[in-house]
Inverse folding.
């Protein structure tokens, strides 16, 4: 409603705000905002786009580097990239940033696009009991079945979960166990977790080109800060749930703040000097995007909402979105002092929010899955987006573009000015109204008169039916019966089935008979009169008989069925069966 | 589960190679990717990844099974999702999350008792979970165990002051007919809930004030709520009907236009729009809208009542008779309906039935002056002065009790005028409240909302009919407020 015209206006304005620099719908990029970065990889002052491509999701994972409109280089990754950051790890000249790609339990560090270092997450603590059991198995003190029982006991009680090996072992069929134990028993047991998100934190200076630490979140809910040169763990913190989005600000040596959105739908804020979360924001739905804007945190939720919080977890505002959020990114133009949040939506739009106000909308040809804004090549205001279908979009912000910061809820909604759809009345209606006004009394009387007549006619018909037992339901209290009749066959012989049911609660009915009345010139029946057995209440009694049609003129008649009680002449029930025309004879 | 019996993963194929044990893949390695697609609502991709992951881990990946179950539940396959959640609970018996989801699925399947059991089990694993206590409370409501429900909801409130819990608790009290406790709940909800959840806060406040009967305050808050969420249908309907009560038809219509855009097929909305037109004396439009409302909800007696009323105004007495008798069939114990029917019958020259209808109305009525006044006028016109006087005195009695107990000290000026005329004709009514000097002027000041009275007419039924209508319009509107504001 209100957004319709607003959108139209916005797109026309927005199209003048951005230059379409490049669009490749078949760039074959499957990636997320966490896996793309803009970085001056060669120290030549030109920023390249680095993207961790998930390939097919199973194989063909690549680290791709774009420059201008073309692919500069491509190197194979061993596993799915979870996150990727570009960071300066030392003070050596030239100051070329390194690329850290997190995948599985490892971080692969690339310098000059060459593999440089591989960091492995420390193993998790292994259950000592599990260790014991396996060492016993190693010395062949216990057979695989005992091992299985003991491990099962451990799984159900232990505080520390079992290792992958034990879990896998428990899944095996008995005949496979022996081999599995032989194969694995020599190896030490390890429990490994994986990285789920990665970020950077300046070590001790706030400069743009200061050395940064890596901050990683893991599947089991830990957050590590790594030394930039030695890749040792400087600091470890733990969360109640698995982190999935992360924002880091501050300097490691001074004061820092890590905002982490977790899988349980909460956002935790970690600070220096406390290994546990300092603040917690409970969201009503899962966070999909997390962006820090100045001192506030903007969260996009899966319930099509955008919330603003202070860094202490106090809620500031909520904006409602027209479609689910797919990704979010910060748009920062320090030269102009402009900051906004870019929100990719599932309806092929990218909305730009300043606080709770929508300042601009960009239409995209496909659903955007990742957004990155920054310096690309030598252009400061470049917006890079990748789409669900694998496309790559590059737009450049016009230098003349101005974003008005207006309140998004100005005055009454537009629907207020839409005319109400009141049904029109015809001339005929008006005429009838006038007629009614003049003759209301006569109309009313006529109506009442006819109504009374109708009621009378209905009552008469009803009484007549009752009197002559024409109804298919018996009205008598002693023999409450129900009957229906079915005619089968094409003729000349028909099968007539009468379904009789005693509807009394518990009393059986006896001494009933059935007789038929029909035109003997037209039909003949083998038995036109027979007795009915005792009728048990509730059961359905189908009674079959055969009728022969004698005429070949294609005419039909009514057969009347009477249910009689012995010693009474008035029937209990009457049914009129409209016989079909005999088609069999007509064919002959 | 199907995935359990799939072929062994690639790692096992390498087995013949001696000594060097293969690296077993980490079960959780793709959890992040599953989660990422799940929260982006990209369920198709998500399902593909889950399938892959379950194949690789032979159904051991707890999170993959968990998300698969969540997606299935979203797709309406509740029974299947329940089974998957149960297998999650076997994979990780220590997680209260899995049990919570099992219970949730049971709840959705309508097995409230079983859900309560599982929630209790989950509560044993995680004592301080707001969600468990709240959902337990909701389950207890469905099993009609209000005491336990109240207990659990209060427990939930101790853990976390969530809006939903307040709403549920208020609902329990209302269900039990304990208005005072409900007021307390809404009051504390207004105090505790963070100021940022304005819509909720307003809902609570409105309910709270409406329960107290402070309509003016409730109206102010409705207005506030509308500034934050101008498209909220319920708030529009409630605010609009309040405006209508005050005769602010144009503003109310503006609001209704917004509502009609978002919910074009709401019977109460079209009823209210119809009565707005009626208030603006656009009778044909009123009939159109009311007929649409009646079409959308044929068994709503309020709409039929209003249709009857509008047709009476249009002097279409025969049609009015039909609508009113339909309304009476749906709601046989309302005196105003019988009164209107009597008015229609009077105009249809059916004095006997009109009298019977009036008698029924008087018998059912408790406090409405109009019933007696209209009956008195009718009797007077029929020439039965004695009976008319009786009805007039009955009306006087009602007026006096109302004034004495301060329920109502301002009367509709048209009613007053009529009563005075009738009083003069019957030589009665000197001791009436409004006949005392000084009060009269006060009561006539408040004529803004009611329709300007038509030109002086001799004592006749038409005048009394006008009375009946204005009150009926007001009545139906006030009924609408409660209907609209219910959460």
């Amino acid at each position: 409603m209100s957004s319709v015209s607003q959108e139209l206006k916005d797109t026309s304005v927005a199209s003048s705000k951005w230059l379409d620099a490049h669009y490749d719908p078949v760039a074959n990029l499957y990636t997320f905002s966490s896996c793309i970065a803009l970085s001056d990889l060669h120290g030549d002052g030109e920023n390249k786009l680095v993207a961790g491509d998930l390939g097919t999701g199973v194989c063909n994972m690549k680290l791709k580097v774009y420059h201008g409109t073309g692919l500069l280089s491509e190197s194979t990754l061993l596993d799915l990239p979870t996150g990727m950051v570009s960071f300066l790890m030392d003070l050596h000249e030239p100051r070329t940033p390194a690329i850290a790609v997190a995948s599985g339990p490892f971080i692969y560090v690339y310098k000059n696009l060459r593999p440089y270092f591989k960091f492995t997450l420390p193993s998790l603590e292994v259950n000592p009991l599990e260790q014991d059991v396996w060492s016993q198995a190693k010395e062949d003190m216990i057979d695989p079945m005992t091992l299985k029982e003991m491990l099962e006991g451990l799984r159900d009680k232990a505080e520390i979960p079992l290792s992958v090996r034990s879990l896998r072992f428990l899944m095996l069929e008995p005949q496979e166990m022996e081999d599995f134990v032989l194969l694995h028993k020599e190896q030490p047991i390890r429990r490994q977790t994986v990285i789920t998100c990665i970020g950077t934190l300046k070590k001790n200076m706030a400069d743009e080109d200061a050395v940064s630490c890596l901050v990683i979140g893991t599947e089991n809910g830990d957050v590590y800060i790594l030394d930039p040169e030695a890749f040792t763990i400087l600091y470890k913190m733990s969360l109640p749930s698995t982190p999935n989005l992360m924002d880091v600000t501050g300097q490691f040596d001074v004061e820092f703040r890590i905002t982490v959105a977790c899988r349980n739908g909460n956002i935790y804020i970690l600070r220096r000097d406390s290994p546990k979360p300092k603040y917690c924001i409970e969201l009503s739905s899962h966070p999909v995007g997390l962006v820090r804007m100045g001192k506030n945190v903007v969260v996009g939720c899966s319930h099509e909402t955008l919330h603003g919080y202070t860094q202490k977890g106090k809620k500031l505002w909520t904006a409602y979105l027209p479609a689910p959020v797919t990704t979010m990114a910060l748009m920062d133009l320090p030269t102009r002092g402009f900051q906004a949040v870019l929100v990719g939506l599932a309806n092929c739009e990218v909305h730009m929010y300043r606080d709770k106000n929508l300042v601009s909308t960009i239409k995209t040809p496909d659903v955007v899955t990742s957004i990155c804004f920054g310096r690309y090549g030598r252009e400061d205001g470049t917006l890079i987006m990748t789409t669900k279908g694998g496309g790559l979009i590059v737009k450049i912000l016009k230098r003349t573009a101005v974003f008005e910061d207006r309140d998004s809820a100005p005055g009454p909604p537009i629907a207020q000015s839409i005319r109400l759809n009141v049904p029109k009345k015809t001339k005929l209606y008006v005429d009838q109204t006038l007629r009614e006004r003049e003759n209301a009394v006569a109309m009313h009387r006529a109506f009442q008169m006819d109504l009374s007549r109708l009621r009378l006619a209905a009552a008469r018909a009803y009484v007549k039916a009752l009197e002559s037992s024409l109804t298919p339901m018996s009205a008598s209290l002693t023999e409450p019966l129900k009957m229906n009749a079915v005619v089968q066959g094409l003729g000349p012989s028909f099968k007539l089935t009468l379904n009789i049911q005693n509807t009394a609660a518990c009393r059986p009915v006896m001494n009933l008979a059935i007789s038929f009345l029909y035109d003997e010139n037209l039909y003949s029946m083998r038995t036109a009169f027979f007795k009915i057995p005792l009728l048990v209440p509730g059961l359905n009694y189908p009674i079959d008989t055969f009728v022969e049609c004698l005429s070949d003129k294609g005419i039909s008649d009514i057969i009347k069925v009477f249910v009689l009680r012995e010693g009474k002449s008035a029937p209990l029930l009457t049914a009129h069966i409209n016989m079909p025309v005999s088609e069999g004879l007509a064919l002959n | 589960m199907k995935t359990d019996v799939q072929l062994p993963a690639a790692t096992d194929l390498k087995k013949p190679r001696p000594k060097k044990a293969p690296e077993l893949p980490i079960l959780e390695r793709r959890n992040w990717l599953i989660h990422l697609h799940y929260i982006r609502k990209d369920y198709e991709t998500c399902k593909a990844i889950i399938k892959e992951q379950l194949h690789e881990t032979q159904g051991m990946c707890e999170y993959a099974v968990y998300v698969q179950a969540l997606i299935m539940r979203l797709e309406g396959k509740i029974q299947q999702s329940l089974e998957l959640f149960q297998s999650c609970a076997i994979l990780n018996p220590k997680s209260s999350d899995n049990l919570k989801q099992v219970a949730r699925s049971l709840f959705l399947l309508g097995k409230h008792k079983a859900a309560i059991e599982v929630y209790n089990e989950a509560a044993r694993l995680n004592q301080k979970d707001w969600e468990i206590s709240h959902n337990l409370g909701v389950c207890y409501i469905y099993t009609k165990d209000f005491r336990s429900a109240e207990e659990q909801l209060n427990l939930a409130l101790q853990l976390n002051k969530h809006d939903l819990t307040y709403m549920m608790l208020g609902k329990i009290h209302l269900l039990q007919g304990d208005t005072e406790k409900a007021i307390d709940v809404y009051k504390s909800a207004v105090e505790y809930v963070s100021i940022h959840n304005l819509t909720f806060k307003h809902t609570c406040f409105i309910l709270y004030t409406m329960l107290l009967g402070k309509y003016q305050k409730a109206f102010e808050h409705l207005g506030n709520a509308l500034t934050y969420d101008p498209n909220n249908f319920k708030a529009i309907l409630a605010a609009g009907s309040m405006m209508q009560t005050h005769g602010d038809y144009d503003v109310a219509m503006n609001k209704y236009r917004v509502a009609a855009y978002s919910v074009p097929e709401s019977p109460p909305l079209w009823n209210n729009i119809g009565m707005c037109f009626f208030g603006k004396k656009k009778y044909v439009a009123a009939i159109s809208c009311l007929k649409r409302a009646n079409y959308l909800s044929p068994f709503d007696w309020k709409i039929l009542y209003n249709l009857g009323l509008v047709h009476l105004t249009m002097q279409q007495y025969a049609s009015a008779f039909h609508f009113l008798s339909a309304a009476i069939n749906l709601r046989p114990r309302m005196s105003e309906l019988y009164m209107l029917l009597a008015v229609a019958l009077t105009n249809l020259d059916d004095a006997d039935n009109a009298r019977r209808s009036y008698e029924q109305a008087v018998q059912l009525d408790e406090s409405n002056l109009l019933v007696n006044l209209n009956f008195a006028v009718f009797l007077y016109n029929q020439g039965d002065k004695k009976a008319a006087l009786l009805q007039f005195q009955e009306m006087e009695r009602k007026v006096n009790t109302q004034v004495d107990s301060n329920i109502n000290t301002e009367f509709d000026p048209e009613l007053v005028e009529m009563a005075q005329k009738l009083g003069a004709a019957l030589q009665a009514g000197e001791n009436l409240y409004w006949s005392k000097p000084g009060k009269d002027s006060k009561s006539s000041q408040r004529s803004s909302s009611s329709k300007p009275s038509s030109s002086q007419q001799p004592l006749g039924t038409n005048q009394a009919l006008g009375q009946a209508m204005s009150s009926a319009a007001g009545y139906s509107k006030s009924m609408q407020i409660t209907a609209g504001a219910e959460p």
Notes: Chain B touches chain A through 65 residues (CB under 8 Å). The longest helix of chain B spans residues 461-485.
